[in-house]
Every structure is written in C-alpha cells, then in structure tokens.
Amino acid sequence: MEIGTYPLEKTSIFQGADAQQVQKMLGVILPSIKTYARGETICRAGETVSSLGIVLAGGATIELCDAWGNRSIIERLEPGEVFAEAYACLPGEPLMVSVTADAPTRVMFLGVSRMLSMGLEPEQAILTTNLLRIMARKNVTLSQRMMNISARTIRARLLSYLSQQAIRTGSSRFTIPFNRQELADYLGVERSALSAQMSKMKEEGLIDYRKNAFEVL
Questions:
Q1: Torsions phi, psi for 60 (to 5 deg)
Q2: pLDDT-derived band at 7, boundaries 50, 70, 90
Q3: What own/partner pairs with CB < 8 Å and gap ≥ 24 does 80-83 have?
Q4: Residue 123 in contact with residue 21, Cβ under 8 Å?
Q5: Is the CB of residue 180 less than 8 Å from the CB of residue 141?
Q6: pLDDT tens digit sequence for 78-87
Q7: How high is the mean pLDDT of the chain?
Q8: Which of 81, 98, 79 is nearest to 5 (CA)?
Q9: Structural domain harbouring 187
Q10: Is the pLDDT of residue 8 over 70?
C-alpha cells in the first residue's frame, strides 16, 4: 500500500507486515494525514501528542530551540521515518523539541493507544516489536549525539561525528544529511569556527570534503 510517495510496508513501524496486513491495521487505527509547507511547524515544543508521525513525502527536522532562539538540530527525518513515538506513549508529557518541515511534507499520524489495543494477531505483535525497536534506535542515536557534543573542542566534536558516520556506513567515504550551518547547529558550535576547523583538518590531511560529501583519510 502506498500513500504519498512512500510504501508503508517499508517504514520502520510496519516492518515485517505485507501490504494487506498494513491495510488491515490502518482500518483499525484510523490514521490522519496532513500536509505542511516548507518551514511550517509540524509539532511544537510544549505541546502534548497522542500520535506518532510517519513522514510520507518531503522531509523534516527535529530541533531544540532555547528561550534565546538558539537552535540545535537533533535529527533529520526522511520519508519513511517515524517521530514523536516516545511522547505519544506518555500522555500529557510536553514535547521538549519541535519538528519542522524542510520541504513540502506529508505526514501520517497514528494514535498509539489504538495501535497498542488493536486486538489483531500477528499484526499487534509486529507493531509492538517495531515500536520498541524504533525507541531503542532513537536512544542509540541520542547517545551518539551526546558523545559528539560532550567533546570539549570543535575538532574533537567533528572527529567524533565523522568517525561515527564512517562506522555507520562501513566506508571512509560518506555523505552527511547536513549543510554547513546545520552541521554547526547539530554539533552546537558557530558556523565560522566549524568551517575554519574543517579547512585546517583538510590542510593537515585528516579529512577531505566537498559540500556534504566527506572522506576520512
């Protein structure tokens, strides 16, 4: 089954289910679908949610903004990826982050309470298992980011991040999902300082890069 541009059976939440099973589950969960313009807020910090979201088309960014307007990127979401799953499992817990559309974006929202009380087998087990896997993966991702930003210098933060990407892709050459400003926001540093450090590391023969394509030397 395909809604928007992404086949739902290929999303992490429906992994292991075929198109017929996905359609059966949606008939019970009764999802809603919304579209957002580029730059529009999908979920705002301070709000509460009861549904998780699946990006069907476009893309979005999970970001943290403090009271002074300083922005820190937590995660980039591509089609097929899920967000707000942990908050949807904790009724009344306010969001600590915001989710913003990076482009014209289409999102499917699934009510978690309906997901966990469908009464369908084996579909119920599939959803429950996948939800646990998604939360575990997000926990690992956040732990990796904490490792990156806990480093004291810009060089150490950048080396930590690039090393993780090399391990994740299994290659010394890889493409990251951020432009220069977004990478600075993700690492919690100033763009100018990051660019200067990248140039220095390139001159020293530690890395090579062009736009968002990197090579660890």
A1: -150, 165
A2: confident
A3: 80/6, 80/10, 80/11, 80/12, 80/54, 80/55, 81/11, 81/12, 81/54, 81/55, 82/11, 82/12, 82/13, 82/52, 82/53, 82/54, 82/55, 82/134, 83/43, 83/52, 83/53, 83/55
A4: yes
A5: no
A6: 999 999 999 9
A7: 91
A8: 79
A9: 152-216
A10: yes
Other beta carbons less than 10 A from residue 152's beta carbon? 7
Task: Please tell me whether residues 92 and 169 are part of one structural domain.
Answer: no
Contact 207, 215 (CB under 8 A): yes
Q: Are residues 45 and 103 both part of a single domain?
A: yes
Bridge partners of 2, per DSSP, are: 7
In sequence order, what are the beta bridge partners of 72?
64
Confidence of residue 148 (pLDDT cuts 50, 70, 90): confident
Q: Cα(116)–Cα(113) distance, rounded to whole angstroms?
A: 5
- Alpha-carbon distance of 128 to 107, in angstroms, equals 21
Are 61 and 132 contacting, i.e. CB atoms less than 8 angstroms apart? no
Rounded to two decimals, the pTM is 0.79
Strongest mean pLDDT among 1-10, 142-151, 179-188: 179-188
CATH of the domain at 171: 1.10.10.10
Q: Are residues 6 and 85 in the same domain?
A: yes
